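seq as requested:
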Amino acid sequence: MTRSFARVAVPRPVEDMFHYRIPDHLLGRIAPGHIVTAPFGKGTINGVVMEVLEEVPLKVRSILSVSPVLPVEDKLLELTRWTASYYQSPLGLIVRMCVPPSVRSQSSKFRLTEKGRSALNEDTAGPFGDLLAALKRGARTAAHLEKKFSSDEFERCLGEGLIEVSDSSPSSPAAVEAGLKEPQYKKDEDTVHTLTLDQKRVLDSIEKSIDDGSFSVALLQGVTGSGKTEIYLRAAQKVLNMGQSVLLLVPEISLTPLLTFRMERIARDGVAVMHSALTAAQKRSSWEDVREGRARLVVGVRSGVFVPIPDLGLIIVDEEHDASFRQEETPSYHARDVAVKRGQIQGIPVILGSATPSMESYRNSEVGKYRRLELPKRVTPYPAPEIEIVNMADPEVARTENPFLSDRLMSVLKETVDDGSQAMLFLNRRGFSPFILCPDCNYTLPCPNCAVTLTYHRKRGMLCHYCGHLQPPPEACPNCQGIRISPVGTGTQRLESAIASALPEAVIERLDRDIIVKKGALQDIYTRMDRSEIQVLVGTQIIAKGHDFPNVTLVGILNAEQALDFPDFRSSERTYQLITQVSGRAGRGTKKGRAIVQSYFPGHYSVSLALDGDYRAFYEAEASIRSSLGYPPFGRMGRVIVEGAKEETVQKACVDIARRHSGTKGIRILGPSSAPLSRILNRHRWHLLLLASDHSTLSKALRSTREKSYRSVRVHVRVDPYHLM
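struct tokens:
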């Protein structure tokens, strides 16, 4: 029997796939993985065929066209099915990431056939005359035509042979090349590095896995500056020499320039870069280079885990602990864990690298799921930097005229600059001040849309970092009309200003999300840091990861334990990781490094153990707490978020969900309660947590949550949530 129907996953936040008839002229040309254009509502949509069927028990509409783009391969379809099932995310939004960006929203073009042109000229087009006339001067996109004509008319005209799909002409090389390259980052460094004994031992183990040609996961735990990147390079080189491809995932766009530069050492065909900041032409070129085998080494951020890569032989996840790999918004998934699953499906080795492994990955290495490889020493002449604590909670601690800066940090900073070395100052808070305060009535300026205060930015005004609301700072207090309202607290802009005042001769720059949105800004700062043209770099967590500036000898960390203020069971882990990662930026060259940590809570174990550099002690302390509570990685966790315009309705729905699960075997409930961020974009938010000993029990409970709908609210479920705000 002819397989005349298809199940298509469309890029919409819906759970179901949609059935379509395969028209006669496309029979035999459509299989799972093909990208098709089909009617959807009153318009058309591009989707991916997941299955072809002999019959369906309902009347369905017809597929309009099939894209000439290569179909998504079977193993990648299997990965999307697993991801959608495990994380309970819409399949269509997951599989969409396997499709070239130029095709995701591209509308098919239609043109007249000879039969259609004859019908138009002979005035025998009947009810299709207007549609055929619209195509008289040439092909038009479906998006253009559906403003006047229905998809039913497209179907009938296609069925009558009056119109046909016009294959999109490929981009000309000149068009693709125009404006293609982003500003290039170049770094002066030796092209050949002699491996240490530890590096040789680790590389031998990884190369054996590559030679075996089967699935395995290696957790590469190396202190900052231990040469993990060189291991990545050597392993990737071996795979490329075997004629296969390599995927390297990084947590931040800011890490791609340096890693891309280093990877170009070994990739004669070039490196394909995949991230959202690229232009449309750059994205199209990267996808085409990978698809056609011109680039066999791919560097990408989170969504890069779904990129189709021919002959993939190795996956590397750098800074695997980083929370940026976890996408909380729909479609929800964790790129690190999806990368491991992709390695399993494709039967290839996976390397997870970090100086501060996630609790989940370290636990997997403890129970034998992953193989742990360690680099305990730096490759530089000096060991890890000495870390000095400044107890900011002590009223006797000397401060500068800016109370957020200790005399000790400022004194060492001046010495560093005078010595011709460089410094990095970390503060994980954008803007000038986190809020403005009226001392007369204690009023703070709230966001009108969200349950947060507005952040003061010197040049932009009062900004909400959640919804983007922007307004000028008030000249008087809106509550009591007092005139003493002023910025309170410190952000990176204020820190930059304070350092500039104290060191007027020094060149000071800032690196945060407000800066990197400017084209070329990131590469410019990196280049100038390499050349020691910048004496002090102030930044947020962007400067904490993977950067290697040999002349940086001082790192200052302000508000080191800021993450502990958040109601999240991972806050201690994040604090430990942050202090370790940021302090590790110092002393990576021929000079000794040091770090000064300003803390209001120096006695907390996440702070004190980070100062000692004792990851194992931290893991054991944290594991003791989490295992007693059944928290990940010693139990499974799911989160249910309910949001809506009316808080009473939201609360009732959340309470009802908790009630329905109260007697579920194997499920423990925390909540319900108002979410820490209780309102975003004028939508109130409540949540609850479900705890279980195994994934199957948790998954079943979360699926039952989604089966019941509630009026006027939206219910979201998150498997293995990383953010609880």
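The chain is about 30% helix and 25% strand.
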